[in-house]
Q: What sequence folds into this?
């Protein structure tokens, strides 16, 4: 049976939206900079230390301070620890008011119409990720037992263990499983390592990392994603 699984952040929703709201609430346009670029740099620094947080070598609070300060620092702007934590508080608060876009909802409804099994695999602390899952109302279309959070399992993407865990619980056939994610390092490398098909939803035009691993497709918007999911469902080339 075919299955489509999604990442959460920057896949089921555009993460720049709550990020921009946090910036506007805290700094009120005090600086001239690109919010999109600030967000991309914040993600870069977050990914840089993610493994350290997973190993317990860096606290989540320290990671929040690090990624915000480094992102602003790259624009020549100094941000205090308190400002960085307040930014994170506002950002997390806005992530509790998320909505799935109309196009993404259409993709989900397409899968439902064709009785495609669906699931979610997301990295991060349990409560933080579940807050986003609930805000997005994911359980309206995906069974709760098919929502997998690394903080609950104790292993994170791209480690093959989390994909094998999901395969066992959902009884997946790797050759008939499609994973959609925004982060090449964790989503694409992880899914391809498990033998799944993988679509890189590269909303913010990140550079392709060096190496031999390739996504089956790299796309930049949800309209393209709809076409590829339809092709996957109808047995056209993907």
A:
């Amino acid at each position: 049976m075919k299955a489509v699984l999604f990442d959460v952040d920057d896949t089921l929703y555009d993460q720049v939206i709550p990020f921009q709201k946090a910036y506007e609430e805290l700094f009120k346009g005090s600086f001239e900079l690109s919010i999109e670029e600030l967000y991309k740099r914040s993600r870069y620094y977050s990914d840089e230390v993610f493994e350290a947080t997973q190993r317990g070598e860096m606290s989540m609070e320290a990671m929040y301070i690090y990624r915000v300060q480094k992102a602003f620092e790259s624009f020549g702007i100094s941000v205090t620890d308190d400002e960085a934590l307040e930014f994170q508080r506002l950002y997390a608060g806005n992530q509790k008011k998320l909505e799935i876009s109309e196009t993404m909802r259409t993709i989900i409804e397409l899968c439902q119409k064709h009785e495609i099994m669906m699931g979610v695999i997301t990295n991060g602390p349990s409560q933080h990720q579940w807050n986003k899952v609930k805000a997005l109302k994911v359980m309206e279309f995906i069974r709760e037992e098919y929502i997998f959070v690394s903080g609950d399992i104790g292993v994170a993407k791209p480690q093959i263990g989390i994909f094998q865990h999901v395969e066992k619980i959902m009884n997946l056939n790797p050759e008939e499983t499609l994973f959609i994610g925004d982060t090449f390092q964790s989503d694409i490398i992880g899914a391809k390592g498990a033998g799944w098909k993988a679509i890189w939803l590269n909303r913010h035009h990140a550079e392709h990392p060096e190496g031999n691993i390739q996504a089956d497709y790299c796309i930049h918007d949800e309209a393209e994603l709809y076409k590829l999911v339809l092709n996957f469902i109808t047995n056209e080339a993907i």
User: Anything to note?
Assistant: DSSP finds ten helices and six strands in the chain. Strands lie at 3-6, 117-122, 147-149, 177-181, 197-201, 217-219. The domain at 16-97 is CATH 1.10.150 (DNA polymerase; domain 1). The mean pLDDT is 95.
